[in-house]
Amino acid sequence: MAENSQKTASELFEFLDGLGISHTTKQHEPVFTVAESQSLRDLIPGGHTKNLFVKDKKDQYFVLTVEENAVVDLKSVHKTIGAASRVSFGRPEKMLEYLGVVPGSVTVFGAINDTDRQVTFVLDSGLLENELVNGHPLSNDQTTTIASTDLIRFLEATGHAPLVLKVSE
């Protein structure tokens, strides 16, 4: 395993700038759940995300990024995403190692820290119907907004070709 130097939000923004990806970020109180983040909806336009860090029995890791109110059936989603077995939540230590974040801060932007490409990123097709999408920029006290098409460009630039699938019910 290569030593990872975990990126900061500022380094993420520099990376986005280098790709020519327009982004805006709002500071707010730390939020750990979708319910806690509801008060931000009127302040931040676009689709808001829920991110699930999961693994299968062969220790293949996935981040499932869906619309905040979407329901994901963890008993059957493995069939859709190509996992070897039913999935369960990944351990916090692996989340920190691979994505550079802790529980409550899981984000698709964690791809910037997964330089060994240990994680497969899955974007729910319903989320991408939004022109703009929002996620935490490696910490849960900020929300960054980018175009949904730019989210795919970001992931590809980190070496992660995202799977775009219908994973929510």
Automatic annotation (TrEMBL):
Do you know which Gene3D superfamilies this protein is assigned to?
A: YbaK/aminoacyl-tRNA synthetase-associated domain
State the CDD domains in the record.
Answer: PrdX_deacylase
What InterPro entries does the database record attribute to this sequence? ProX/PRXD1 (IPR040285), YbaK/aa-tRNA-synt-asso_dom_sf (IPR036754), YbaK/aa-tRNA-synth-assoc-dom (IPR007214)
What does the record give under GO molecular function? Answer: aminoacyl-tRNA deacylase activity
YbaK/aminoacyl-tRNA synthetase-associated domain mapped to chain residues: 28-154
Mind telling me which PANTHER family this protein's record contains? PROLYL-TRNA SYNTHETASE ASSOCIATED DOMAIN-CONTAINING PROTEIN 1-RELATED, YBAK DOMAIN-CONTAINING PROTEIN
Please give the family membership noted in the entry: Belongs to the PRORSD1 family.
Q: What is this protein called?
A: Prolyl-tRNA synthetase associated domain-containing protein
Provide the species name: Agrobacterium leguminum
